Amino acid sequence: MQLVLEFLALPFVQDVLKILFILLLFAMPLGTFMTLMERKWSAAVQDRIGPNRANIGSYRGRGLLHIAADALKSIFKEDLIPKGADKFLYTIAPFFSFMSAVAVFAIIPIAGPIGDFKFQVTDVQPGLLFIFAITSLGVYGAVLAGASSNSKFALFGGTRASAQMISYEVFLGLSLMGLFMVYGSTQVSAIVEGQGEHWFGLIPKWGVFTQPLGFVVFFTALIAETKRAPFDAPEGESEIVAGYFVEYSGMRWSSFMLAEYIAIVGVAALITTLFFGGYQVPWLYHWESAPQWLVTLLQFGKFASFTFIFCWFQIQIRWTVPKFRFDQTMALGWKKLLPVALLNTVVTAIIIVALA
Amino acid sequence: MPEESSENTESIEVSEPVETSVVINLVQQEYPAAILSTHRHRGDETIVLKREFIQPVCRLLRNHPDCQFEMMVDLTAVDYLLLETNLQQTARFEVVYHLRSLSKDRRIRLKCPVPEDDCQIPSIHMLWDAVNWYERECYDMYGIHFEEHPNLTRILMYEQFQGHPLRKDYPMDKQQPLLELNDVEERYHYGRFE
Amino acid sequence: MNTSELTTISVEELKPVHLPGAIIPAPPEDSDTSIMRIEIGPAHPAMHGIVRLTTYLDGEQIVGMVPEIGYLHRGFEKESENSKWIQVIPYTDRLNYVSPVLNNIGYSMAVEKLFGVEIPRRAQFARVIMGEISRITDHLTCLAACAMEVGGFTFFLWFIKAREYLYELNEQVTGGRVTINWTRFGGNSTDFPDGFLKEVEVRLEKVREVIEEGDQLVTRNKIFIDRMKNIGVLSKEKAISYGFTGPLLRACGVPYDIRRADPHLVYDELDFEIPIGEVGDSYDRFLVRMEEMRQSISIIEQAIDKIPYGPVMTRERYLGYPDKKEVYGSIEGLIDHFKMVMEGHHPPAGEVYQPIEGGNGELGFYLVSDGSGDPVKCRVRPPCFNYVQAMPELALGHYVADIVAIFGSINMIGGELDR
Predict the structure, then answer these.
(1) Which residues of A touch C158 (CB under 8 A)?
(2) Are C117 and B7 in contact (CB under 8 A)?
(3) Which residue of A has its CA nearest to C147?
(4) What is the distance, to the nearest Å, from the Cα of residue A162 to the centroid of all Cα atoms in its chain?
(5) Is residue C313 within 8 Å of residue C188, measured between CB atoms?
(6) Which residues in chain C have Cβ-Cβ distances shorter than 8 Å to B8?
(7) Is the Cβ pair A155, C148 closer than 8 Å?
(8) Does A325 contact C148 at a Cβ distance shorter than 8 Å?
(9) pTM for the predicted model, two decimal places
């Protein structure tokens, strides 16, 4: 027993456990569930029933079995590689997408620390700069897939994706400048700590209240970064069929899809962490005698529920608005978001200097 | 057919008297040699023209302030082969044009007999944009050549199609030869890698 | 991997052509730019029927386009010439398969014009009601598809749901949703069932609700307007020269509606407005169709108020089949029925052109009869033939993504285009 506890106390083992917990018990299930939720919710929006046919005997589970059925189907499907495609790049492209979608969770704290133990895989010093680095890697997934498929539609998707994602990284970074100034750090844990405070003991000092403009720009840029509607010109299902992954089939195709849905969760988790107090439950400091396990549980519950709400919100956006054309996406970024983000940075700086 | 219908099966000429309308008068005035005959059946005015005159007559009808047929509604052909009552046809084909004037609220039908052994007629593609494809379709279906048409290729059928399907001597159940697959360039050739 | 091979086409391949229905660009002058040829269709999600647009691109900008049609050619005219007159009616269902009643009506009216008969007033009103229902289904489908192409998938399914309400009305009268085979020469095959007109009013109310909901969702959406406005503009003169009719011509600002210009059935007794657009872009076409659906609903409501009682089939014996009672009760009836089945109708010799306002524009039937039982010529003038011909002109200078917005708004129907 003693040995087991000692083993568990090793930092290396803890990290692995955290990775397993956050990925396998939080991000992946939620991402997979998003695939069903998207179909079900879109059905609700569109006056349909939605998927409900997959069954084991008479058990249908309200379409829940479709998740398993889809996974099984895509695993057993033939893995086609088009003739003339660059086999190596074609094969590794989905991993870039998948990896960058998953790696976001490395720095997200899902509950408050207990003593030295942090519910966060790693609290790196550069913090959010790590996010920018990782999301830029995601570009390679789309670009390599598009360029290696030996298909013009895929090439279109790839070029659109590269232009869009690289531009929106600029606004992604700029929109967070104000946040860094307000909380005085790029480290995620510090930002979340800062959001635990309250103004006049009443209004929580969340990022969305301190940086409303930053929130809007960040959310928009993040959706564009994950190529979700209304910014899904790289996929462009109506004109370039499926864009950069048009030639993919089977599990590789599923990797792209799963990466997209995990990215939804990632976006929601980032939004929650940076602008909605992360795991900080507002007004909890009034209840000083709360037991530690209950506080942790409440914190996790708050984080998970906010993440879920923002997942739902992204799905709702997708099924409400039409899509931008590709050049309109770029115009929106460079002509509208960039000035707004710059203005936000300048105004925040002035206010901070004035208050100091 | 019972007797009731016999009143209705009259020939074109006696069914309604030929009214001389503005359009017919105008064409008669400008190109008296062009008109073979005119008639009016169920309210549709028709001018049968010599095919050499189709281009100038159409230009006249489009541009003249009394007519202003701005729209070419339909262009097709009729094959009168194998017809027992020949409808007073002298030639096998007839190319039929339907024009519409929006400003004068008027329709007119022009017909040009085209004999089988000299199966061509001047194109009027320069007058209306719509004509281009209609003439291509007519060529595709009847094999009537439109002289000076810039792009007279098949449109509904494929290039290797033999014969012209709407000719009466093209049998309904005729089979076309199977085509050899063209050599497609390698980059269009999809399939399993290896 | 050799992407340069994908993006360029050799200079010798390009012979510049600028014609209605085919635009191929000149080879680029400087060596830096290259032109890419991309085949959109025939199997492509946005090509609603089956049509191929060979598109030439400079970057994402369209510099040339050659539409190729004929993938759905089924030989409508050949089949018709080898059928009896009455046997053509089911074929017309398959022309514009989202507004089949209008095709039925158009063909039957052409044959009636050939016979020179007038159909009973109740039948005329019935044709107006069913025809306008059909026009609404046509517009619903078109707008739904158009919005779906630019990403409004919810709008698509809402409108398809509304269309289903109306297809069920078709079903009550004709027995079929799409392939209805309803009209006959001299009237309609069936009268409305009991309580049908009340049902129509109830369902139209539901449809109107859906239209308003869809209107709120999409019509004033900034993204939607950005995608549709000033896309695929054709000037008034050019549109007329291209033979545009129906909603597309009206979107260009020409108030030309065959229901008014060549009054048929009882449209001259009904009060409706002809909506027109301003510039003739995709957005105008969208708005014109939207408004036309409202006008159609009002036409149906007026027709329901005015519809008289009476027969729906003319009593002319050379047109309709005799009553079953007569067939089994008298030798004349039996002979009539036998001859009608074996020899078919015998329209008098002659030729007619009958235009009606189809869902998509002027749907014309040009028939030639020699007085025998078979048509000599049964030509249908498809409205969207002209629209697809104008595609290169409409799309020139726009982006790839605009193809779908333009193509959605012209509402190409494969069955009608290729016949």
Answers:
(1) 46-47
(2) no
(3) A322
(4) 18
(5) yes
(6) 115-116, 318, 347-348
(7) no
(8) no
(9) 0.85
Shortest CA gap B140–chain C (Å): 11
Judging contacts by C-beta atoms under 8 Å, the chain C residues touching residue B156 are 69-70, 73, 418-419
Query: Which residue in A174, A225, A243 sits closest to A329, CA to CA?
Result: A225
C-alpha–C-alpha distance, residues C275 and C290, integer Å: 9
Residue closest to A301 by CA, chosen among A111, A121, A114: A111
Cβ contacts (< 8 Å) between C226 and chain A: which residues? Answer: 324-325, 328
Q: Each residue of A80-116: pLDDT tens digit?
A: 887 777 888 888 888 888 888 888 888 888 777 777 7
**Alpha-helical regions (H) of chain A:** 2-9, 11-19, 28-45, 65-76, 87-103, 128-148, 152-183, 188-194, 207-210, 212-225, 250-275, 292-318, 326-331, 338-355
Could you give the domains of chain C?
3-68 (no CATH), 86-315+345-381 (1.10.645.10)
**Number of domains composing chain A:** 1
Q: Do B187 and A80 touch (CB under 8 A)?
A: no
For residue A49, tell me if it sits in a domain.
no
Chain B residues with CB under 8 Å of C64 CB are: none
* First-to-final CA distance of chain B: 70
Q: Do C377 and B187 touch (CB under 8 A)?
A: no
Helix axes C196-214 and C282-306, enclosed angle (nearest 10): 160
Contact assignment for C350 to B8 by CB distance below 8 Å: no
Q: For domain B11-188, is the CATH number 3.30.460.80?
A: yes
The token pair that represents C172 in the structure block: 């009550």
As a residue count, chain B comes to 194
**Residue range of the domain that includes A244:** 2-44+64-355
Closest by CA to A321, choosing from C228, C224, C403, C285, is C224
B 87-116 near A (Cβ less than 8 A): none
Whether A239 sits inside 8 A of C400 (CB atoms) is yes
Which chains have at least 3 CB atom pairs separated by less than 8 Å from chain B?
A: A, C
A246–chain B nearest CA distance, Å: 13
Residues C58-78 have pLDDT tens digits of: 878 888 888 888 888 888 888
Tokens of A157: 């998707």
Quote the CA–CA distance of B95 and B76 in Å, as a whole number: 6
| Residues 6+ away with beta carbon under 8 Å from C22 | B151, C65, C66, C67, C392
Domain boundaries, given as residue ranges, for chain B: 11-188
- The residue type found at C278 is E
Nearest Cα residue to A108 out of A86, A92, A91, A124: A124
Residue A148 lies in a domain: yes
**Both tokens of residue A1?**
């027993």
Q: Say yes or no: A48 contacts chain C, CB-CB below 8 A.
A: yes
Hey, is the C-beta of A288 within 8 angstroms of any chain C C-beta? Answer: no
Range in A274-278, A311-315, B140-144, C395-399 the model is least confident about: A274-278
